[in-house]
Amino acid sequence: MNTLLKKRESLLRRMTEYSEFLRGSITSVCSTCNRATCICSGRSKGKAYRLTYKDAHQKTHTVYIPCRQLAKARKMVANYGKMRKIIDEFQMINIAIFKQK
Ligand SMILES: [Zn+2]
Asked: How far, in Å, from the CA of 29 to the mean position of ligand 1?
């Protein structure tokens, strides 16, 4: 029992570590025409990045990501993946604790 509670505490600490997360996916678009498949013919162009996610009502939202924030945004999206794994582990531990009672 104690071991399980300790495991749960360590999961809580890891959750704090990854609490800075973003759910969604990062895609790049042309910075000129703003499309994933560029329609500007032959011109040199930069890329713009955006995060797409769905809210609780399944409505899609898009957030512009400035270039200087791209690395951070990618890390935050990865943190969300880690957060989900932690929740799965929480589930297993909570089930184990629940069964003992
Ligand atoms: Zn373009």
From this structure: 8
The rounded Å distance from CA 66 to ligand 1 centre is: 17
As a 3-state breakdown, the chain gives helix, strand, coil percent values, each rounded to 5, of 50, 20, 30
**Residue position matching structure tokens 């399944």:** 58
pLDDT in tens, 39-50: 887 776 788 999
DSSP-assigned beta bridge partners for residue 61: 53
Per the structure, how many domains does the chain have? 1
Q: Is the pTM of this model over 0.90?
A: no
Report helix, strand or coil for 39.
Answer: coil
Note down the domain range covering 13: 2-100
